[in-house]
Design brief:
about 270 residues; alpha/beta; Rossmann fold; Threonyl-tRNA Synthetase, Chain A, domain 2; five-stranded parallel β-sheet; four-stranded antiparallel β-sheet; about 20% strand; globular
Length: about 270
């Protein structure tokens, strides 16, 4: 049986879009744990948010935050490595300093300007969770309030500054040029060393444009339908379209992958 590593987006994928519920995936999460197949959260969420969620789910693998901006490595997980946060992109203070001169030319509202109440209004998170969401390390989410033409111009100017603009389920995200696909690649190399006696295959699950790099980097891509029922287009020949949104579709697709993986191992 191949060693499968599951890299999963959270919002809209493992979590329902509106209520952030994940319990429809609880049995499958436990099954993957029993099979010793790692579940790696690869999300736009912050370090504090994911630390809270991993306690809820009891999933204690490495995880990726802020769209690939940084990776958390638990202590003694990879051949005795120390626990640490590895920043792959740009830190938030650098991002904020770089975009400061752009603010007068464009109309947008970014996270660093928002109160917890405003974040809660936009996301549906509790005030307490909104505070965790605002504790960012390497990205700046924003609401675009200008024209589409000016958005393209804004994106070009960000590139000149060494910054990238990613579209998520609710926000645009300003970050360095390290995305979810880069983080998957970084971690997968470590898993290949850790499980050198196995054939390691990566499975990525996501629903939004900011998941594209991860879905296209993975050996198997699982595309979860968006809140409106549509699917993003993914350039990966080995892909599965889940039949349901959120954790129900997550579970359905993984069940199919596990069945096929078990069948191949018996040939």
């Amino acid at each position: 049986m191949k060693k499968l590593i599951f890299y999963t987006d959270l919002d809209g994928t493992l979590l329902n879009h509106h209520d952030y519920c994940w319990q429809d995936a609880a049995e499958m999460i436990q099954k993957l744990k029993n099979l010793n197949f790692p579940i790696v959260f690869n999300t736009s969420k912050t370090l504090k948010e994911v630390q809270k969620f991993r306690e809820e789910t009891e999933v204690y693998e490495p995880f990726v935050i802020e769209n690939g901006g940084a990776v958390w490595l638990p202590a003694n997980y990879f051949n005795g490595e120390q626990g640490r946060l590895v920043v792959l992109g740009k830190d938030l203070s650098t991002i904020l300093e770089l975009i400061k001169p752009l603010r007068p030319d464009y109309h947008f509202e970014s996270y660093s300007e928002m109160s917890p109440e405003r974040i809660s209004e936009l996301t549906g998170l509790s005030i307490e969770d909104s505070k965790l969401s605002s504790q960012r390390i390497c990205s700046e989410p924003m609401i675009w309030k200008d024209s589409e033409t000016k958005l393209k111009d804004f994106q070009d100017r960000l590139k000149e500054l060494g910054l990238n603009l990613l579209k998520g389920g609710r926000f645009y995200h300003i970050a360095g040029f390290s995305d979810k696909g880069d983080a998957l690649k970084y971690l997968n190399e470590k898993y290949k060393v850790q499980y050198s006696e196995h054939e390691v295959n990566s499975v990525a699950l996501g629903d939004s444009p900011n998941d594209l790099s991860m879905l296209e980097e993975a050996d198997i891509a699982v595309i979860i339908p968006r809140v409106d029922g549509t699917y993003i287009e993914v350039g990966n020949d080995n892909k599965i379209r889940a039949g349901y949104k959120g954790p129900k579709g997550w579970t359905q697709a993984i069940s199919k992958i596990l069945t096929e993986n078990a069948a191949r191992s018996m040939v």
